[in-house]
Each structure stands twice: as structure tokens, then as C-alpha cells.
């Protein structure tokens, strides 16, 4: 078992990592509450600039003396395609009207700017001596890996297939998060098509652990002691939970998002790329259904994300769940509104019960 | 835990059920070998008539004194749509040519004939006093449930969502198989769209067991002791394994199918309805890729199944893996060519190791 070394390396009391949830869900309050309760809290820097990240790190440091981590998105090259842009604008226009949004010209993200921002985020992580850095959507460069290793920062990659897990180990990262098809939010797939990267954890973990040596962290649909113990049987040393923390009091998710999750059933989440240009799992709603047919004609990530931002914001402000991205994993029926402390206690108690009861 | 009662009720030494694999994969040799090794062997009657089923039951009874079961497909009403039929024939014609098949007029299945056949299969199960009957693609009628209950035949339904599991319990069935999105072969979904019924086991089991009391059998991607113990942690009393038995010596799968599975990786399976008219998971190949765009324009199950039969047979006979249905779950990297006895021993040994090692 790789459990002991992972506990030490991540300074954990419990084998639980809070999934970084970008767009304001992972608040400094949530990150610190998780870290203060023996788990690893995470800051989601995916959509932040270096200034905003620095601010969040300082806030978290004020609230906890324990370890926490930062997640970054590895930028991928992209170009703006006029045709896709036109399609998207045409489809979004009637939604702007119905939500009474005066959509001004959106300033579109630029690939080279994303890369520069990513390097600035890493600079902040090094400068602030953040002990753990996780990566989504790809691998950091060997230069970057060398810099982080020099600072003894724990590097964790995110894989959705066995091949991706092998590449993460080969690149020299310390651990790997295996994201199952059950997971809420964005798919981390980077070496395959999004369809090929949809492997359930029951299949993904036991296949991966036969071929890699670094510790595995299981992510996707895990929200209770049962999921925690099952993940450990499959070969994971720890779990990463997103949706379970999303409905916590300390999370920055809107009340309407939290309510949508706690009221949803297992069959009500779906995969869509219409919000951001990249496949992500959330609760089905009008926006997803309207856009479904056109999904493959829309701009890539993060351009589509920029284009839908005003819609998502207005929908949330108007308490209208039909045009928001209601990210959720496949276990919404296990969600509760509670504090992070209550959630962690409950999961650990249940894990022990399961263990003793089998 | 519902483990003890399930062991008794199914006369099991080990909590393993062999998945019924229609189309000649579940041979009497496989069924009997599984039952002779303390697990539950299954006859797949999905595509059989009553005469063929009777023959298989008699063969299995010659080879084992232990309990075994029969799986039936619950027939659903369907009609032949001329347009879909025309589309399918047009698309399949060039494949017939390339495989040098002289396709004569296929006699198409009829809904009312399927229903009559289903009732004849049940008659054989009762008459032969088969102790266990599992159902796929729907619920048996209350009349039928009453008849089987009178004979004390254990009835097991198949669910892909929490709602389906609840309906199976409500109808009075004794147990439920929860089929995760990881599973190979046909999706059992009957109350939802096929997309809605794709829940990973890590999410499906813990949500379902909170709302049902009957024992749960986990199915999908489970091929080793890790998967068995993980399923038990999640709340399942036993597991059903398909792909793991498909590559066994006693299975009737062609060598080319067995080889394709043992050589595949986790990301190489996909869902397709092009072979049968109903979504099923198998290893990606030329046929699936060629038909993908047209999937929604093809006839429903089992009409499309009848239309592709000659292609699947010819492809197999020609050792050409590109036009066969290479059903497989998402864990092909765990598959081995071995006897059923070796597989069962290995799984149980590993389960104990996992248990002691955590």
C-alpha cells in the first residue's frame, strides 16, 4: 500500500483532498476549513490571474497553518475560428435577449496570453512556497517540473486513462489523480478524444495501478465512506471529492447550484461542452438541451467559456437554474448542505463502519 | 450486510455470478465450470428459442449438480420503420460486398413472435425447475412474477439507475444487478434514455443501496479481487463478471474476440448501437466507426441485430476483427486466457490479499 507515504508527503490525517473548483466555488474559507480538518484544501487557480491567486493564497494562509495546494490548468494552443465564433454568437443571441443581457463585445482569450498567465501563476506558487501543485488538462514542461522539484513542491497530475497516468509518472510527477467518468465538472483528458477518456473508476484504477508506481488519488462520484473504502480497495491511496464539498456551507457555489445538486438524481447529470468548449459533467438543463445539437460546431475551450460567461452570471443572479453550469458528479443523491468539518467527520466515521461491517 | 442471505439464497461459496453472454459466448461448459467452482453459472437465453434453451439446460445439468441460472431478455414492443430499414440496408450493402457475403433476404424478427418466445422460455425455466432467473431490458409482468414465485425461483432484475432499481424492488423481484457504465455488451436501461443510464458503479451503488432493501449485485468492469472488494465496500453483496469469463477457455467467444480483448487498453472500448439497434460496449473497430454518424437512423433492437448477423458471422469466420461485435467492458487490461476455475481462484485469493493489506 502506498497509503503511508502519501499521508506523510501531503501532511494528511485523513486520505481526502478537496477538488479545486474554479469559478468561485473553492473559496479560501472552504480551502482552509478542509486543511484545518486533517485533509488537503485546494485553491482553484484555473481562471485566476497571478494577482487574484496571490490574494487567495494570503487569505488561506491567514485561516490555516496547515498544508494546502493550488490547481492550475495547463494551457493548450488554440486558435479562434471565425465560423465557430459566428455559430456560437448566433445561438447565444436569443438567450441574451431572454435573460435581458446587453452583451457588449466580449474580449476573447488569447492562447499566448494564457501561457504567460500560467507561468505567472507558477511563479506565485513558488514564491509563496505553496507545498502542493496539481495540474489539469495536460503535463507541465520538463523545465517547469525541474523548477518545482527544486522547491520540493509536490506535483500531482490528472489522468483519465491508463496511458495518461503512465505519461504523468514518466514525466516525473509525484502522484496522479485518476478522474473517473463519474466526475463532475471538466474532463481532464489530454491524450485522447473526450469519448475515449470516459472510464469508470471501477475499471480505471485497477488497470492503472498495475502499471504505475506513484500513489493514486481517486476522483469521481466519491462522496461517502463507501466510496472512500472502495477506492482504497481498488488501489488508490486517497480520494479527491468535488461535489461533496460543493454543497458545503463554506463553498462559494450559489444557493441555486447547491439546491440543484441536493435535489438531483443519479440519472440527471450529463456531459456537455456547450458552456466552455470542453466536455464537463453537470445537471441537465435548458441551455444544455438547446445547444446539444450544435456542440461540435462551437469554439474550443476557453473561447466558448468566455462567450457564455454573461449568460451563466445573469442566470445565476436571476435565480434561474436553466442557463447556469450546474457542475455535479454522478452521485448528487449523496450530497448534503453541511460544513466541511461535518462532511469529513461523516465520511471517516462511515469508512470505519464499512470496514468493520464487511 | 446482505451478504449472508445472498450466499444462502443463491447457494454460493463465492460472491461471483457469471454474466450471461448471448450469441454463443456462455456455453454449457462455461456455465457448469462456474457453478462447479462455487459461483453461479448462467445460461444466456436472450437469443434462444425454447428448444435451444431446453437443450442447454440439459447439457448444463449433465455437467454440474450445483445451482445455475437462466437470463432472459424482456421483449419490448417495436415496429419496423421502412426508412430506417432502407438506411441500414444501404449502409450494410458495401460491407456485404467487401466481405463477399451473398446476403439473401433476412427474415426480420417480429414483436409478437418475440413475446411468444419469451413466454415459452419462461415455461421451460419453470418446467426444468431452474433455480434462478435474471431479466434484462425491463420488468417481468406481475402474472409472470407470481408464477415464478410459486416455484420459488429466485428472480433478479437488471438496473442501470437508482430509479430502475427501485422499480425492480417494488415489482417484487428478489435481487437487483446494478449495471455500471463500465459494463461490456448491451446496456440494460429500460426507464431512461441510454445516455441517462450511463452511471459509473462508484456512483450508482452507494446511491441505490440507500433506497432499496433487496441485495445488490454489482456488474461492470469488475475482473479481479480489487473490484470484488470495492463492490462490497460500496454496498453490493456480490459481483457479476462478464468480460473476465469471456476470455476463459470454456467460453464460446471466438479466439479473435478473446485476443482482441486481451490486447485492448482501457480507452479502446466504445458504445455503439450499430450492431443491434441498442447501445452496447465493445472494442472500437472499422464497423463502429463507419456507422457512427448514422447510429440514430438505424432500425431498433432487435431488427438491426438481425440485419448485421451475416456480417458479424462472416467477419468472425474470416478472422477479421473489423466487422465483429467485440463486446468488452472497460477493464480489458485485466483479462487473461485461463480456465474459469483459475479465474475464480485468482479473484478470491486477491480479494483476501486486498482485505488483509489495507
Please give a structural write-up:
Chains A, B: This is Probable nitronate monooxygenase. The structure is a homodimer of 358-residue chains. Chain A is built from 14 helices and eleven strands. The model of chain A has no long low-confidence stretch (mean pLDDT 96). The first copy, chain A, has one domain: TIM Barrel (Alpha-Beta Barrel), CATH 3.20.20. With 358 residues, chain A is α/β, with parallel strands linked by helices. Chain A is 43% helix and 13% strand. Chain A is globular and about 55 Å long.
CATH names the topology of chain A as TIM Barrel
Which CATH top level class of chain A fits?
Answer: Alpha Beta
Radius of gyration of chain A: 19 Å
Instruction: Count the E strands of chain A.
Output: 11
Percent strand of chain A: 5-15%
Oligomer: homodimer
Class from secondary-structure proportions of chain A = alpha/beta
Query: What is the topology, as strand order, of the major beta sheet of chain A?
Result: 1-9-8-6-5-4-3-2
Number of helices of chain A: 14
* CATH homology-level superfamily of chain A: Aldolase class I
Percent of residues in helices of chain A: 40-55%
Number of domains of chain A: 1
Order of helices and strands of chain A: HEHEHEHHEHEHEEHEHEHHEEHHH
Q: Largest sheet of chain A at a glance?
A: 8 strands, parallel
The global form of chain A is globular
Most residues in contact: chain pair: A-B, 53 and 52 residues
GO molecular function (chains A, B): nitronate monooxygenase activity
Protein name (chains A, B): Probable nitronate monooxygenase
Pfam families (chains A, B): NMO
Cofactor (chains A, B): FMN
Amino acid at each position: 500500500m502506498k497509503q503511508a507515504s502519501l499521508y506523510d508527503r501531503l501532511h494528511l490525517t485523513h486520505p481526502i483532498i478537496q477538488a479545486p473548483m474554479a469559478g468561485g466555488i473553492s473559496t479560501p474559507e472552504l480551502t482552509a476549513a478542509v486543511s484545518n480538518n486533517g485533509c488537503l484544501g485546494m485553491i482553484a487557480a484555473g481562471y485566476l490571474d497571478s494577482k487574484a491567486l496571490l490574494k487567495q493564497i494570503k487569505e488561506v494562509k491567514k485561516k490555516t497553518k496547515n498544508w494546502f495546494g493550488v490547481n492550475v490548468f495547463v494551457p493548450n494552443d488554440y486558435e479562434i475560428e471565425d465560423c465557430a465564433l459566428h455559430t456560437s454568437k448566433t445561438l447565444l443571441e436569443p438567450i441574451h435577449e431572454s435573460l435581458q443581457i446587453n452583451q457588449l463585445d466580449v474580449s476573447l482569450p488569447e492562447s499566448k496570453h494564457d501561457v504567460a498567465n500560467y507561468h505567472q501563476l507558477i511563479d506565485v506558487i513558488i514564491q509563496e512556497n505553496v507545498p502542493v501543485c496539481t495540474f489539469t488538462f495536460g503535463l507541465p514542461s520538463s523545465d517547469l517540473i525541474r523548477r518545482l522539484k527544486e522547491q520540493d513542491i509536490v506535483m500531482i497530475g490528472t489522468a483519465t486513462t491508463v496511458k495518461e497516468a503512465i505519461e504523468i509518472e514518466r514525466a516525473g510527477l509525484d502522484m496522479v489523480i485518476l478522474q473517473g467518468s463519474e466526475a463532475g465538472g471538466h474532463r481532464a483528458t489530454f491524450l485522447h478524444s473526450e469519448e475515449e477518456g470516459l472510464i469508470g473508476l471501477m475499471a480505471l484504477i485497477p488497470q492503472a495501478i498495475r502499471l504505475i508506481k506513484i500513489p493514486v488519488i481517486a476522483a469521481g462520484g466519491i462522496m461517502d465512506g463507501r466510496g472512500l473504502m472502495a477506492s482504497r480497495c481498488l488501489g488508490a491511496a486517497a480520494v479527491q471529492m468535488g461535489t461533496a464539498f460543493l454543497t458545503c456551507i463554506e463553498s462559494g457555489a450559489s444557493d441555486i447550484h447547491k439546491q440543484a445538486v441536493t435535489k438531483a438524481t443519479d440519472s440527471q447529470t450529463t456531459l456537455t461542452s456547450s458552456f466552455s468548449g470542453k466536455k464537463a459533467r453537470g445537471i441537465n438543463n435548458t441551455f444544455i438541451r438547446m445547444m446539444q445539437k450544435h456542440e461540435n460546431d462551437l469554439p474550443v475551450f476557453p473561447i466558448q467559456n468566455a462567450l457564455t460567461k454573461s449568460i451563466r452570471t445573469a442566470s445565476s443572479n436571476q435565480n434561474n437554474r436553466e442557463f447556469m453550469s450546474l457542475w455535479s458528479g454522478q452521485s448528487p443523491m449523496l450530497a448534503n448542505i453541511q460544513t466541511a468539518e461535518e462532511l469529513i467527520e461523516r465520511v471517516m466515521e462511515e469508512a470505519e463502519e464499512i470496514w468493520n461491517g464487511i
